[in-house]
Each structure stands twice: as C-alpha cells, then as structure tokens.
Amino acid sequence: MGVGIVGIGTAVPPRILTNFDLEKMVDTSDEWITTRTGIKERHIADSNVNPSDLGTEASLKALEMAKIAPEEIDLIIVTSASLEMIFPSMAAIIQDKIGAKNAGGFDLLSACTGFVSALITGAQFIKTGDVKTVLVVGTEVLSRFVDWEDRNTCVLFGDGAGAVVLKEVGENYGLLSWSLHLDGSGADLLAIPGGCARNPCSEEVIKNKLHYIKMNGKEVFKFSVRVIGEVTEEALLKAGLSSKDLNWLVPHQANIRIIEAGAERLGISLDKVAINIQKYGNTSTASIPLALEELIREKRIKDGDIVALVGFGAGLSWGSAILRWKNIE
Ligand code: ACO
Questions:
Q1: Phi, psi of 264 (to 5 degrees)
Q2: Which of 170, 313, 321, 325 is 20 to 30 Å from 219 by CA-CA measure?
C-alpha cells in the first residue's frame, strides 16, 4: 500500500529578526552569518505564542489542503525540539485545539531528525491497515532555548511549524523506503542539558545557562556533512534507486554549506535541492515541511517525482525518507 502526503501546511510568526538586528545584539556581522551559514533572517515568536499555536495553525492549513475534517484524523504525531511542557504531550494540546475528537497520538522526540522519523512512523500505522489518516506536525519555538548572548548559536535558529496529512495514495506512490540511525556517543555535541531529570531546574542550572542550546558546532558540522549524502544514498538503494533518479532533495535546513556538501556527495545540482534557510534559519523539526511546502506551492514538484527528505541533528540522529510524489488534487 502506498502512503503519502495529501495535505501540507506551515506557520511562521510574523516578527523577523535579521542579521543586521543580530549585529546590535552580539559581536557578529551579516557578512559572517551569510557566508558561514547562508542565513539572512529568521522568524521569532512573541512571548505569548507557544509551539502548539504554530503547530495548530500549520495543521489546520494541512487539513484544508487535504479536504479532511479534524474528526477524520486517527492519529496525531507531534515532533519538536522545543517542547511546550515535558507533559502533557503537544499531540494532546494540538488535538484539542484543532478539534480532532477521534484521534489518539503522542509526541516523538528526535531533534532535527524528528520530522523524518515522525513521517516514517505515521506511514507504518497506515500500512498495517490499523488507521487511515495520520497528522504529522513539526513545530518549534527554539528562540526560547537560545542563549541570545552566545554568538556561536544565537545566529542559527528560528521559529516555525509544518504539518502534513498522511493517507493511502495508491500503489507505487508515497513512501518507498527509509533509513534511520542513532549514535548516542555524540549526545554531548548538541544538547539542552538543563531543566529535565539529569539537571533539574535550579539556580545553578540557570547560572550556568544549562537550559539553553549547547553545541560543538565544528563536530556537528563534520557529522552532518558526512551523513546527509550517506543516509540518502542508503535509503534510495533500499527502493532500488540511486541519486541519479532523484528529482528533489529536501534537506533539514541547518547550514547552506552542509546542504551544498550533501548535494555534491549525491552528484546532484543545487537546482534539485529545496533551500529556504536564508529566510528561516534552522527551524529543526519544522525545516523540512517548510521547504517542502514551498516546492508544492510553487508547483515545482511534479507527479511521479522522486523526493528524498533527509534530517540530521542532536542524538546524534539522522535519517532519510524516499517518496514518489503523488500530486495533491
Ligand atoms: N559571528 C562572528 N564570528 C563567529 C560567530 C558569529 N555569529 N560564531 C562563531 N564565530 C567565530 C568563532 O568564535 C570562531 O572564532 P575563533 O577562531 O576566534 O575561535 C570563528 O568564528 C570560526 O568558528 P568556526 O567554528 O570555525 O566556524 P564554522 O565555519 O565551523 O561555522 C557554524 C560555525 C556555523 C556553527 C558551523 O560549525 C555549523 O553550522 N555547525 C553545525 C551547526 C548545526 O547545524 N547545528 C544544528 C544541527 S540540527 C539540530 O539537531 C538542532
């Protein structure tokens, strides 16, 4: 059974923070940020906006495109690297906000690999025949977990959300193959160490800023450059395909240089790569649907196209999902 995307929606908060704004906050420059990362600006949520609000907006748009009523959703999977609370799950909060009265669901955590992991997971539920309709949401207000005095990290991240509705789409369409990996020996390379069980909230945690994103940028960069092409090739091979068959690469938008290195490894030109990092920065679980939605809206993606989604990040975690695109009517 082919399971694919029948609706997609996104949401970003209206407030934009440019590189020039950041120049006034930390010792950095538009030139450094642009050449080292490809980012020009990012969207930042106001203090009264939570990840579930952005996730709800994106979900309602995805349902509208799919022409599906909230009551028809069987399962909601929400993935995020900027949790609203440890519990309840964001799936429960969004379930209530969109009125998905008949849905079960849960949150799935895998940092920037979250969207790929959640999409693969949702598709398996439909493939077993147990459910018909799954809503997958990636949503972030990462700006709350960024140390705005740390120029090494604060220039990278942004807020936003993306949601897709998954359903049966016909044989030979939809998710063809996938590949997921973990290497927890790299757990310390990228983490929010404070505020949970290991380092519960305390004055000490706050003094040491352990409630903010801590990152070894160089090591994460080397890891990302290695896995982005590797895992895409591995997933393509499982579908009996190679990078020559690829019409679109939709990578997690972490750094333009990582994306370019991935495209080079795969031997594909950049006009086959979805890139919008310049507008949003790294929005973790939301970055892949934000990039995919743009391809769909601009009608650049065609029926039958082979599309590779690829995510990578904290864990360390990385994964790819290969889809044969079915046009959304
Ligand atoms: N402005 C100006 N200078 C800066 C800034 C800044 N914003 N940030 C760092 N620098 C300085 C550094 O301090 C360093 O100075 P030094 O040599 O005097 O110490 C210099 O720039 C060079 O630093 P590098 O680390 O060599 O720069 P690099 O080319 O590696 O780029 C970057 C840094 C952009 C962070 C890069 O390493 C990167 O993108 N890493 C991956 C990050 C990432 O993708 N993280 C998210 C993964 S997804 C997830 O799960 C959340």
A1: -65, -45
A2: 321
